[in-house]
């Protein structure tokens, strides 16, 4: 079905955009390196390919006049999400261009900002490219040649957005999102619990779980002691 | 961030100068030899490098910029308030403390910027991520924002939820230490860009002024750009510049001269109407009043412009000129002002009257203008417009200023006015403050008028009178 296909492609684009955003966060910081720039380039190429195919598919679907009402509503929803995703991608690419130009790697005109992020981002890039792992070594002057290409790609993405807005007219005020406020809490319990543990180290206010666990162990210990005493009394 | 720097069809935004200066300072702090000393932060099992203490930052600023410690502390707290460094122990209060409290530098992506303003969509994604991580326990103002955003950008809410989930999953691919640091960075960014209630917003700026148009970052500029830059630089070299020592001296003399006349700096006699509800001050300083105050008469001596701007001053000057038989100068000047600022339809008739009265040979009040200006003016009168008498007016103005005005200042008439001028007495302070006149407020404009329009107008006027 065209709808499921479009949804799947949009999910893939969404994943790649999120990973790209995560990678761009560290440009200019202490984790910046030629490898990072190469990962950025690979991720954005993948994102652009996905964007082009998804855009083409959605445009075809929406320009089809003989489409049922709820199908059209569904496609419009996907369209709005798709254009939002593209906007985020374009902004991140522009940001990457500005930051990459401001913090060149080959000659340390500006030392990188010591942000405390030192780890490897290859797993994020691997997730973006849907590969198992990514092992590569970028050349020394990768970032210089990359910046010119990035500039061209930013313009291309801008043109693509303009193009699509011209071809398909989806008024934003008629689109109603499926997700309600707080929908993210319903199906993400497992993910939430593990990341709660990660964040609570820096913020000691989040201390419900450890104190609850402590109360539970104390109570059970007291209960066991009471049971043991009762048994010994009975035995006596 | 979802907003692009050049809004399509709008003026491009620019990075504000003070933010650029702060960025440069932060980059200088990163120098491996000359920068700030960094330590490692130890949290149970993970060790995260690149932590600086508040005292290190202050000491580096004192050393590098050769300033006092107070100033260094102020600069450091500015850096913290704008989010360039953030505290690690109490992440919600962005203030610099000059002791062992640890701080860390913000990543350049999240630097405070007016070039890349924070977008609603990104804030929504951040709040959703926080919602997921905290299982719905958001702070009150964040919960309000979340609900508002849900209403406002409802059409993209699917994208918000999808992006939030994916960004969290992407973050999990990192080491724990990196994940913590990135979460703190994002939290600081949003504390600066969407401050909690009670915290002043550092990014508040007035209406957009197009003084500095920043270009999008381009690796290869066009030929036109460089030509324009060369032209601009050449013009800049030729501009006359006044040394700031001279400007500041002039400013100092101005302030010194005007100091005693300022009602806020030097107090206003009889009393401040806003404090004591007594409007004698305004009554005494009305534009036309029988007895001008001494301060006002003194001001006429500061400059010719002051004298002409004050209606009373102008009237007395006119009397003086009439005694000197040169009153036509001032009349001509006033007629020219009327021409400049009057209605467009009256211009031809006004120009005619001015010509008949002042400029025609043998006119009743002929003004003495030099021949070249007179020729130019008479030529211009054939196509009259608002500014046709500007040259003549300037000539007469300078004549009055150089000639009649100094004589007026030395004249008996002015000295007499100065001697007669009144210094109002300060009103006696009431001994019992609770016996002050009760203040009556005018009727609230929100209440509907009791009966129709006229009575509403009447009651408004009555209310004004009372208060």
TrEMBL record, chain A:
The keyword Transmembrane helix applies. The keyword Transit peptide does not apply. GO terms for cellular component: rod photoreceptor outer segment. This is Regulator of G protein signaling 9 binding protein. Belongs to the RGS7BP/RGS9BP family. GO terms for biological process: detection of light stimulus involved in visual perception; negative regulation of signal transduction. Keywords: Membrane, Signal transduction inhibitor, Transmembrane, Transmembrane helix. The chain crosses the membrane at residues 213-234.
